[in-house]
Structures are given as structure tokens and as C-alpha cells.
Amino acid sequence: METTAGDPPVPDPYRWLEGEDEEVLRWQRWQNALTTEVLGDLPARVRDLVDGLMVDRAPSLPRFAGGRWFHAKGSTVVRSDEPFGDGATVVDIGQFADRETEPFLSWLSPSPDGAVLAIGVCTDGSEQNTIRLIDTATGVVRDDAPSQVLFDGWTGGAIWLPDSTGFWFTAVTGSVFEVTKGVFLHRLGAVTTDPEPIPLPAGTMDYVIPQAGGRWTVIAHGLATPVPYAVHDGRSWRPFITDVSATIAGHIVGDRYVAVTDLDAPRGRLVAIDLDSDTPNDPSTWTELVPESDAVLRTVTPVADLLYLSQFVDTYAQISIVDSAGRRVGEVPLPARGAISEGPFPGMSLVRRGHDEQMLLSFSTPTRSWSVLRHIPGADSVEVLRPPETGLPDATVTDLWATSADGTRIPYHVISPPGADEALPTLIYAYGGFNAPFLPQYPPKGMAAFVAAGGRLVLAHLRGGGELGRDWWHGGRMQTKQNCYADLYAVAQELLDQGRASRLGIAGASNGGLLASVALTQRPELWSAVIPLVPLCDIVGALREPYGRMVIDIDYGHADDPADVRRMLGFSPYHLVRDGVTYPPVFIEAGDTDPRCPPWHARKLTARLQAAQAGPSPVLMRIWENVGHGWATPRDTALSEAAEWLSFAMHHLQLLPSRSAVAPGSGGSPADLAR
């Protein structure tokens, strides 16, 4: 039982499923076997279609160092004369396998002189990785790599010193489950044991991101709202910006920190802050380079002596170019209306990649997969370094706005098969959290196959995300979190009312998995299929774990505030399930090594729904072995995942013919127990 101050206990009948003992694993194996039985041959029937239309996350940009390019090619890293050219294999990460699972390249970072390649290798799907160092001339794996474990690749891995003698990196300082992180300085040939004595907030579990440039090193603190919290001038550390409540996300440019900030500018403005300033916490001493505009300014990238500014206009990407004084000198001519790939969270955009003298970017549209483009300062066109792998060239994209319960207009994009004007089976995919923009991009997780099969796919931009600036984020977090779910229901209802959807499904991953689970439990009558992927399902239970408490504190509420806990129970799906309700078909997916949304969330919600289900529809669960949150999943495994949940969605939204073997059984059969 969990309690809030002065309140009755919160029921938790399936807390035993939070364990990892044999009883729990036996239950989990039984559920997996049940899912396999109920799905039958549905995944096989769509696998080839999904395979032809699924791409990985946006491709990693090649890195330039020592006059050569380094890029991932399959399981290898190649050094070549051109960004994606043929060249010499520097390393094959297959040699680092320590189990049956295929190792995963989490990141790569060559030293500035190109002599040493640092890579992060994950062997269990969890994203946790260790550093390997390779001599690029010989391919020999060096024996002087640090031994610390990196929680993930979100902080860039190895951030090299300009002289190539060592690098900064962020790693966990205790158990990976404690989530405490420190920044380490590793010198080649030395042993690294202790983190740097950086002045950071006491007890922080949030991300710390090193940035190096010239004689300066900056430590940014915070994933959703990073600020340059500490600075090193080549001699010692000192606090930098510690008393400003805002996002300040940028890069070292000479002796200034040039950053996008939402301080006094909810859509963002560009400022420069002297790194040797005695008063960095006084915004009046900052220099404004580009004022706030109607566009949402998201990131800045220094290229040569220019600054490339990534921004959103009605969710679509634009890139403006300004000089060091903020004067506009041009823009990047993007090939269409679409999305630029950047880390979803502002802190992830602080890692420099590519080439210091060229702008490299990944670009996609809702109907074309990711390409890699290059813009040379002064050029009037972009060069395609890697074309799109696949797409839906004949599909149509319609940009629409729904009206939420409080009158706010909510943008969404509808991807339809060619010539389709009638109501179709429709799947909504959305996120809505943590200041992370959900982009008008090529559909992730193989979802383009849903359109190719004759369905309609909707990408919804809900409050809580970062698509429309700081106010959009704040309009769907903490006390206003329910707005995010109201926005979803507004989009869903409009699709039905306007005759676009014949049957409606909802899917989402991570915070989007929470979104789908909330939609299932708050509005079960809306949906014909619900697919929470790697979801957070038990808000109260998550507060017992350090990582869960950290993310909840960013976006949902504070554990030490009883009013917040009571409010969070209003959107904690596990606690919203009601006995005797007819729930729609549900497919819940998770990974057994997920450090962000552990599999017990999926287990508990599955068990609670199966016990409460009053209708005939199945409640199925799949827990994948040696799979985490999705950031370190090999493609073959990701393909199997997508084929399963998409076939479930297609079947229950009536894109696949009905089969009696898929319908729940009777008389106490395993399929009947899935109800």
C-alpha cells in the first residue's frame, strides 16, 4: 500500500509483479506465450511490409576528425575521405559481444587528430554502455579505456580535449539504479577513478553534459531545461549560471557561451554570455543577438564563423543563418516541409557532431524517410549525402488543428493513402511531455506500414511537448498535465466527427506509453485498439525508484506534496482501472532491461486490466528479453517488435481480415484469460 498524507491507502494489489523472482518471471513467460498464441500468424503477415518501410532512428551524422570522416556502417565504424564513403574499417563491434545479444554501437567520437576512436558499446539493450578506445591506424583496441559505466549515449560519450590528449565523459557514480552521475576527465594512458569536483546541485540525478571548446569547458545541467551551470577556464572550476530559472542551451564560441534561452521569451531568443563574466546570473549583462519572433527557436549550431538556428513554424522545421552579431545572412533551403533530427530533449542538442566548417543535418518528411544533407556556408543549395531509404511517395499529408476543451488549438498531421477521402481505420501516435517536440517526421517504429496497408496515421502535437515553445510545454505539465490528455481527446473526437476515422486506435512510447494508457483508462469508449509501448503505468510506484522520481519531478508533480500525489493519481493508469468496465483490445510492450520505464509497469497494468475486463477484447503483453527503452535495440529485434504491435493494431482496426484463431477463446483457455 502507498499513502498520501491524511488520505486512505492507495490499493496496490499487484505490487508483487515489481519483483524479478522466479514467480514473476514465470508469470511473465506465461503472458508472452499467451501473446504468441493469440496473435498467431498476424506478425508474419505484415513483417515484410513493415520491413520495407521501417527505418532506424534518424541516422547518426558522420564525424570529421584528422582530415577524415568516421561513420557507422552496419556493425563497423569506417574511416573514409567522404562523409559516407567507402574506406577502411576501424573497428567491428561484434568483437565486444559478451552474450547472445548483438552488441549495439551507442555513440562514436574520434579524437580531433583522428588518431584514436572512442566508442560506446551496449551489450544488453539497456543503453548502459562502456567506452572502448581504438587506435585508428592499426585497429588495435587500446587497454587504457576508462571502466566507468555510461547510463546512455545522451551526453555524447567522449567529449575530446582540443589537443587529443584525453576527453570528458559523464558516467554513473554508483549503481545504475541510483542514477547519480558525475563528469570524469580521462587522460590517454592513465587510470580514471574519481569524478571531477564540479560545483553541481547537491544530490542531483539530472543529466550533466560536458562541452569543450578552446580553453573552456562548460558543464550543462538538466535534460529538459539545461543551463551552463559550471565552467572551467583551464585552471579551476567555478559556478556559472546557477540562479536563473530558464532554458539556456548553447555552445562555446570563442570566449562566449552562445545559447537559445526562453528567459523572457517563451518562443526563444539567442543570447551571448561572456564566459569570464563576474555576473553571469544577471541577464542584463547578456548580449541579445536574435530577439524572439513568431518562430519557435530551438537550437543553435556554430559553423565556421556563423550560427545556424533551428526553429519551428507550425511544427515544421526552418534553419536561419546569422553572423556572430546576430545579423541574418540567409537560410538553409530545405527540400520540403518536414523535420530536422535533433535530440528530443534540449540537453541532447548540446553535443557537437559532424564538421566544424559544414552544417550536416538529418531531414525527413511525414512521407519520406530520413536523408542526410550538407550545407556549406554561402551555398544556395544543400547537398544530399545520403538519400531517403524508403517512404510513402503517393500518400497525402493534411495539416489540421483541433480545439481542446479549454479552447486551445492543437495541431496535428494526417497521413492518408493516395486518393482516400472516406473514413478509414485510424491510428494516432503522440508524445506530449518533457519539453520534447514530436516532429512532423517520417513515422517511427515502422508505422508507415499502417498507411501502406490502407489506414490513416495521425501525428498529434499535444501540450507538454516543445513544438510551440515554453508555454506549450508548461500548458501540459505539472498542474496542467490533464491538458495533454484533453488535447488528445479533442483530436480523436474531431477525427470521428469529421468522418476521417472509421475505427480509432492510440499508440505511444515512453511518456507516450503513459499517454496511451491514460487514454485507455480515462476514455475507453473512444478506442478500438490501445498500444502502450515501454510505458509508465504506475505513477506512485515509480516514485519509489530514483529514475522514476527524477522524471516525475520534471513533468508530473512532486512526491513530497500530498496534493500533487493526489492529482497524479488522477492520471496514473494502474490506479484508474475499474472493475466491470468494457475495455478495448490492449497490447502492452516493454523490455526487460529498460532502465527508464521498467517492465513491472507493463506487468502490473496488464494484470489489473485482465482482472477488470468485462468485455470480450484481449489484453496482451509482450516483454522482450535483452531489450531496453528502444535506444539500443538492434534492427532485427525492433522489426519483430513493430510487426507484433502493428499487426495487433491492424487486426483490431480492421485492416487485416478477421481470423477466429485470433479472437479470445472460451472455457478458461489462455486466450480467454487474456480478457
How many domain modules?
3
Helix content: 10-25%
- Residues in β-strands, percent: 25-35%
In terms of per-residue confidence, which ranges show pLDDT below 50 for 5 or more consecutive residues? 1-5, 659-675
User: What structural category characterises the helix and strand content?
Assistant: alpha+beta
Q: Please report the number of helical segments.
A: 13
Distance between the termini: 26 Å
**Widest sheet: strand ordering:** 28-29-31-30-32-33-34-35
Features:
675 residues; globular; alpha+beta; Methylamine Dehydrogenase, Chain H; 3 domains; 13 helices; four-stranded antiparallel beta sheet; Rossmann fold; eight-stranded mixed beta sheet
Summarize the structure.
Residues 449-654 form the Peptidase S9 prolyl oligopeptidase catalytic domain. It is built from 13 helices and 35 strands.
Protein described:
- With 675 residues, the protein is α+β, with helices and mostly antiparallel strands.
- It folds into three domains: 15-54 and 391-673, Rossmann fold, CATH 3.40.50; 59-196, Prolyl oligopeptidase, N-terminal domain (Methylamine Dehydrogenase, Chain H); 245-389, Prolyl oligopeptidase, N-terminal domain (Methylamine Dehydrogenase, Chain H).
- The protein has an eight-stranded mixed β-sheet, sandwiched between helices. It has a four-stranded antiparallel β-sheet with strand order 1-2-3-4, with no helix packed on it. The protein has a four-stranded antiparallel β-sheet with strand order 5-6-7-8, with no helix packed on it.
- Helix 2 (42-53) crosses helix 12.
- The chain is globular and about 65 Å long.
- It comes from Amycolatopsis minnesotensis.
- InterPro entries: AB_hydrolase_fold, Pept_S9A_N, Peptidase_S9_cat, Peptidase_S9A, Prolyl_oligopep/macrocyclase.
- Pfam families: Peptidase_S9, Peptidase_S9_N.
- Residues 10-341 form the Peptidase S9A N-terminal domain.
